[in-house]
Each structure stands twice: as structure tokens, then as C-alpha cells.
Design a protein that fits this description.
Elements: H1 2-11, H2 16-31, H3 38-52, H4 67-83, E1 89-91, E2 108-110, H5 112-141, H6 144-155, H7 158-167, H8 171-186, H9 190-203, H10 211-222, H11 226-252, H12 256-259, H13 261-266, H14 271-277, H15 279-302, H16 304-312, H17 316-348, H18 353-384, H19 392-403, H20 419-428, H21 433-451, H22 457-462, H23 468-478, E3 481-482, E4 486-487, H24 490-514
Antiparallel strand pairs: 1-2, 3-4
Helix pairs in contact: 1-6, 2-5, 2-6, 2-7, 3-4, 4-5, 5-6, 5-7, 5-8, 6-20, 7-21, 8-9, 8-10, 9-11, 10-11, 10-18, 15-16, 17-18, 18-19, 19-20, 19-24, 21-24
Amino acid sequence: MKLESGLGRIRDMKHPLAVLILAGLAVRLVLMPLFSFNIDLTYWMKVFNLIDGGNDLYSIGGYYYTPVWGYILGAMDMLAHVLGFTDFGTQVPELYPYVGMDYSISPYVTSVSFNVLVKVPLILTDVAVAYLLYTFVMRISDDRNKALLACALWALCPLTILESSVHAMFDNVSAMFMLISFIAAYDRKYLLAGGVYSLAILTKFFPLFFIFLLLAIVVRNEGFNMRSIRSIAMAIASAVAVMLIVELPAIINGQFWESVSFMTERIGLSASTLESLGIWLFVGLGILVFLVAAAAHYFCRIRPDIIRSRFLEISDEDRNRKVLKVIKVVAGVMTALILLYSAYSVIKAEGTLVDIFNVFAKRVVLLLSVYTLLLEAYIAYRFLFSRREGIMPYIYAFAMSATVIFLWPPAPQYAIVIVPAFVLLAVFDGRFVKPFVIMTVLMALYDIVLAGPSAVFSLAVYTSLMDISSLVPMVEFVTSYIFGELPTIAPFMLVFGGASYVSLLYLIYRGIILGRRGSE
């Protein structure tokens, strides 16, 4: 394999890890001032202006995520003023006619210096993840070749390079936190695992779906006993404490639900609806936690014989049958409740037919989120009772849990959360190297299509390398329509997006069907 032969040459160098990290860093440093992603970088510029205007993140519109990335942007804004950067971006009249089309174009173009500044923490995050993967693989395998491969698959991955040095999206920060949480849970450092897991969710919500896997890791490590309950309680307490610290400014300002609206909207729940429930929502959550804790205490401390006789000491077939039955019952109950909620929401909805459809669509997303959680729970269960020893059951479960989050087609930047898990899987199971590389290449190409001519807007406005007027025909093309109402860019998105999605589905097939023996 060419990748291995190249790694072989690097391995023989004096400092192979440094060579790999510097190679990945060099590519990123070359790309970061040259290319950009118009829409998202414009939002980050608005956050800078929001902060400079004396506002908090949620006082006026412009920032739509949980606070973690906002705090990083705030730190970079302070650095910009220390360094004397004052030109963050400018309005470009030539782009006005194309604003509001299906293909998003912003009339603002960020400066090259601003683009570089925002990308610095993302590139440093890439370096940190590459080092984490190397050290973890080296520690659990004592094989430098595998450790170097893990570093290379992240540091030289086209998707990770593109998202940090061009797109400037912060999903790699969430992926880093999720990787740290997984490693900490594996190492039985549950306080650290819980706290960092909270940061992962508060950066981007996708790690929320890993909850069952992390719980299963604790139980697999500690056994079905009170030690597991105490360890889980420690992790939960750490996660809640970190969440309260991160959200403290928003809580003080009465903006908590607004600050988590990105997460709630992604699972089909309206922040305004949750806020209207007020204290009763937290009372309900408290009661649920108490009931779960009481049940765990009863079955682990008072009547452990029930768990042993009815769940642990039965055949795998009987246990699997019981688990699937529980999952089906839960799925049925939740489906009925969400359908009733959907009917109630549609009846109460006011506005146009489009507004009513949007309300219904959110309930569909909520239902899909429930199904995804149940699928994640089943993966965690299979991992928990896997008879295979060593690291492989952990890695297979981590990779499969990451991938099934995206049974619906993800945006390329979202797929970053998959990458660390599949890097580990590819390192320990060579059958996944080629499918993984193909998936990341296709996702990167898809993101380039989405960027379109906006990738060079900053160069056209802030350098003499090109002129914005030369890009107008390309902008006009990507924002135009064919067959009346179909955006011209749609066929390109279908081809590249469809190919990347198929490659992702193939990873699921490869992992669950062909790789099942690796986790049993």
C-alpha cells in the first residue's frame, strides 16, 4: 500500500511523529490564507462585531451555537486587538444581486487576516488530535507503525485539512473533546470523561448520541455492581458541573434555552417550548434521574440476584431477545407519544401551509433522533456483552456509534466527529483504511462544491491576485436556476453529496456486517 510505504520512509527518519505533524501543519498553513468559506466566516465576523459592540453572545441575533465556540472567538477577538487587526471584513456591492438565493452568498467578505486568525485555534486543535491519536495507539499497542498511521490518517486527511484551514468550522473541537472523553473512560478516569464529554456536547450536539456507549464502557470496566453506579454518578456530576460553568453567563442573563437552541432544534425540540415548561422540566428530569438511580441501587445492592438470574446468567440468544423486545416497546411508546405531540403541534400551529409543514418536520426529526438513540443503545449493549477481550470491542463500538448518527446525509463538516473513531478502527483493522480514505476524500470534494467561488472571495477583495468582477460569472452560475426552480448547483450537490453519503453508508455496512466478528 502506498500509504504504508510512505510511512515506512517517514518511520526511518529521526523524528517521524514531528515530520508527520509538520507536514499536516504545513499544508494547513499554506491553505489558510488563500481560501475561505464565505457564509460561515461571515458569521464569525459578526460575532467579533457583536463582542466589540459590548454585547453578549445572545443579546442580539448573530450567534446560534452553544457558548464554547463563542468563547474561543471572544479570545481571538481580544488577540486581534492586541495585534492591531481592525479590518475584519467589508461589504461587496458586486455580490448584492445574488443574496437570498438558494445557494447562500453573503454580501460581506472577510479579510485574509481575519480568516487566518479564526483558523489558528482550529489548526492547533488538529495538531492536538493527531498527537492524541498517536499517543493513545502507541500506549495500547506498543506499535510505532500503527501509531504513526493513526497520526497520518488525521493529520493528512483531506477532510480535516479542509474543514480547519479552509471552511473554518469548529467540529474538530467537538471531535477532540469526544476523543478525550472516550480515552478517559477507557482509562477509568471517569471525572475527566464526564467533564470533557459535556464540553463535546456543548461544542456541537452530535456527541450526545454517545451517551449509551460511555455508560457501557463504565459498566464493562467495573462490572454490574455499585462501583459502576458510583463511577457513573461521578461522571454525571462532573458533566453537570462543567455544563453549569460553561453556561453560567447565559443562565445569569436568562438566556440558557436560547444558548442551547442549536442542540434542541437539531433533535426537533423548540427552545421556546422547553422554556415554556419552566421549572417543571427540571423537576421532571430530577424525578427521572432519581427513579433511575433508585432502580440501579435496588438491582445492584438489594436484589442483585434478579439481574443475575434474569439477565446475566441466561443465554446470549435469550438476552438478545429480551433487549430487542424492550427496544421495540420503547420505540412504539415513543412513536405514539411523538405522533400525538405532532398532531397537537399541527393543530395549534398558525400561519401558512409551509409553517405547518415546518412544525411537522421538526417532529419527524425528533422521532428520528429517538430511533437513533435506540440504535446507539443496542450498539452499546452488544459492546457490553462482547466476549472478545482487549481494545477491539471498544474501538468497534466507538466507530459504529459515531457512524450511525449520520444515517441521514450529513453536511461534510459534521462528519468530522466520525474521523477519530474510524482512524482508530482503520489502524487496528486494515480492511477499513481504503473505505475510510475514500469517504473523507469524497466528503472533502463535496465541501469544495458547497464552497464554490466563495472559496476565493477574500483573495479577490483583499489581494491583487484576482478581481471580484472576474468571479461574478461563476457566482451568477451557482446562484441561477434550471428547469424553472431547480438551483443550478443542485445536480452537483446530488452527485458529490450522494457519493459521499454512499461511502459513509458503506462504512456502516463494513463495520456492522463484515466487521461484526471483530467485536464479538
